[in-house]
Write a structure and sequence with these properties.
The protein is built from 19 helices and 25 strands. It is α/β, with parallel strands linked by helices and about 625 residues long. The protein has three domains: about 250 residues, Glutamine Phosphoribosylpyrophosphate, subunit 1, domain 1 (4-Layer Sandwich); about 190 residues, Rossmann fold (3-Layer(aba) Sandwich), CATH 3.40.50; about 150 residues, 3-Layer(aba) Sandwich (Rossmann fold), CATH 3.40.50. Bound molecules: 2-deoxy-2-amino glucitol-6-phosphate.
Length: about 625
């Protein structure tokens, strides 16, 4: 979603800001802008479309200043126009602001400001906030304890309802940035004679690896040499400086055409990283360092509740299946966006899990807060170290797969599947699973990187299929049991990057409606394994075939499909049910990717989508 970069230091700000904005492009946006303090005033350029469209506009301004900010906007209030792009400047020209989030009470603020003579050039809530800061600045008296600039921002935010991550510049205090957050992530970068702020580490990691994760309700005041953090309501807080563990090369393509392709092929290594050091010495169970719950406490829970969004929810659904199967414990999964408002009756001994690659998805965060408010313990499965969800959870499991840039989640998903399987094993071994069954699953999980490598060898074959199938406008994805969520994931992957309409269903459910779509024009992707459901899935395939639907079968190598039933077969290695969902995912990731490439789609920046969804 929207991206933020702010800089104050000794170097020219514009190139650093533009580079930072490019590093945030993966998050999804529809316009971009920059403001730099130049010859005693703010020079501002804003443009719809990509950062590449903004660059020539910025170049015309010959920006040499060392104090500035930039923004990529994903429209919420107001259409995609140059005027609505950020930064916004107050009507008295003194305050410049960039903002992620939504100010819900902006209409009443605007009415108040119009009455005071402030004027507006855009339809945004951000410009209202900007003018309200200018209003408070004008009223603020000098105070020996705090800069007028910080006080004006603080007073304004006390009136703001909704969510925000903001960076503010002020013409009366050039060389100072004020930044604050509530619900939208912000990270301070502490450099050598320079200070930075960004909505994502990716934007600043090329300049510094020393960062401070700002918390909700905090305001930071940055100059090139120092930074101070206070809360909205009270005094100074002592910040914790963290070290970012990944480097800028993690955000480069390394010879791949797209980040999605790079991340698909990184999966064997990503799986190794996700399980490293996480099996017990006797090789019969998994171990996790950060659960903050003892084995005894874990055994005491009667139920598990998972909440997540999108792809992460699909990983929860697979985990539900494995946990119920291995550990015989009831598990529920819910869309985080629904859970937070459903006010669902919950059993007392329930342990909560949230799953989120970014750790910033607003609905997942809100679901977690709701569960905590009711007194439940919440553990987070999350990839981004230091994210809001990771910090607010009672404990959790990091995915450790490195920076995922592609909007379409790939390596994060398969590592979530792996962690879900490991967690199921851990819970099962605390209950009734035997030592030898545990050993068998550990061995299977350890073998998953090699199985994924084998599945990836089908890339050229799948590319050929993609060329033949890219012309279709609708597709069905069908699977059963643990492969049903993989059908959902296959459909989501295809639609998000190729814009082909796709639906995922449990294969048998097809007869209750979706079969009406089946014709020569609507192919179906089936997931087939040789296990207990084989005959039933074959029957569903026959029902499609009888209606002239084309069939792509993602089938384990030991499946003996009736001759001529599938039009295309993508073989995957035979494997244990704990790793089958991981292995079955690879062909549909590749299929979606190659179809999107065939159609000339912007694979890493699909329209209307954002990498982390930080607005409701
Ligand atoms: C993944 O391909 C999607 N773009 C999307 O569904 C994503 O999984 C969802 O927004 C949740 O994100 P999170 O894991 O960062 O919470």
């Amino acid at each position: 979603m929207c991206g933020i970069v702010g800089y104050v230091g000794k170097h020219k700000a514009a190139p650093l800001i533009l580079e930072g904005l490019k590093r945030l492009e993966y998050r999804g946006y529809d316009s971009a802008g920059i403001a730099v303090w130049q010859d005693g005033k703010f020079a501002v350029a804003k443009k719809t479309g990509r950062v590449a469209n903004l660059e020539p506009e910025a170049a015309k301004l010959r920006l040499t200043g060392t104090y500035g900010m930039g923004h990529t906007r994903w429209a919420t209030h107001g259409g995609v126009t140059d005027a609505n792009a950020h930064p916004h400047v107050s009507s008295d020209g003194k305050i410049v602001l960039i903002h992620n989030g939504v100010i819900e009470n902006y209409a009443s603020m605007k009415k108040f400001l119009l009455g005071k003579g402030y004027t507006f050039k855009s339809e945004t809530d951000t410009e209202v906030l900007c003018n309200l800061i200018a209003y408070h600045l004008a009223k603020e008296a000098e105070d020996p304890d705090e800069s007028r600039f910080v006080s004006a921002v603080r007073k304004t935010l006390r009136h703001a309802e909704g969510t925000y991550g903001i960076v503010v510049m002020c013409s009366e205090m050039p060389g100072e940035l004020v930044t604050a957050r509530k619900g939208s992530p912000l990270i301070l970068g502490i450099g050598d004679g320079e200070s930075l702020v960004a909505s994502d580490v990716a934007a600043i990691v090329s300049r510094t690896q020393s960062v401070v994760y700002l918390k909700d309700g905090e305001i930071a005041h940055l100059t090139p040499q120092r930074f101070a953090i206070t809360t909205l309501t009270s005094g100074e807080v002592s910040p914790v400086i963290d070290k970012v563990t990944w480097s800028i090369s993690d955000a480069d393509l390394n010879g791949h055409a797209h980040f999605m392709e790079k991340e698909i092929f990184e999966q064997p290594a990503a799986l190794e990283n996700a399980m490293r050091g996480r099996f017990s010495e006797d090789g019969s169970t998994a171990n996790f360092g950060g659960l903050n719950i003892t084995a005894g406490e874990f055994r005491g829970f009667d139920r598990f509740q998972f909440c997540a969004c999108g792809t992460a929810l699909h990983a929860c659904m697979v985990t539900e299946h494995l946990m119920e199967r291995f550990a015989r414990v009831p598990v529920e999964c819910d869309y985080a966006s629904e859970f937070r408002y459903r006010n669902m009756p919950l059993f007392r001994n329930t342990l909560f899990f949230v799953m989120s690659q970014s750790g910033e998805t607003i609905d997942t965060l809100a679901a977690m807060r709701e569960a905590k408010r009711k007194g439940y313990k919440v553990l987070a499965i999350n990839n981004v170290v230091g994210s809001t969800i990771a910090r607010e959870a009672d404990g959790g499991i990091y995915q450790h797969v490195g920076h995922e840039v592609g909007v379409a989640s790939t390596k994060a998903f398969t590592s979530q599947l792996l962690i879900g399987a490991m967690l199921s094993l851990y819970v099962a071994r605390l209950r009734d699973m035997s030592f030898s069954e545990g050993v068998e699953i550990v061995q299977a999980l350890k073998g998953s990187p090699e199985l994924v490598r084998t599945a990836l060898q089908q890339a050229e074959h799948i590319k050929g299929i993609a060329k033949r199938y890219a012309k279709y406008r609708d597709m069905l994805f069908l699977g059963r049991l643990s492969l049903y969520p993989i059908a959902l994931e296959g459909a989501l992957k295809l639609k998000e990057i190729s814009y082909i309409h796709a639906e995922g269903y449990p294969a048998a459910e097809m007869k209750h409606g979706p079969i009406a779509l089946v014709s020569e024009e609507c192919p179906a992707v089936f997931f087939v394994s040789s296990g207990e459901m084989f005959n039933k899935v074959v029957s569903s395939m026959q029902e499609i075939k009888a209606r002239k639907g084309k069939i792509i079968a993602v089938a384990t190598a030991d499946c003996k499909l009736p001759e001529g039933l599938a039009d295309e077969v993508i073989p995957i290695p035979e494997c244990h049910e704990a790793v089958l969902p991981i292995v079955a995912t690879i062909p549909v990731q590749l299929l979606s990717y190659y179809v999107a490439v065939e159609l000339g789609r912007d694979v890493d920046k699909p329209r209307n989508l954002a990498k982390s969804v930080t607005v409701e």
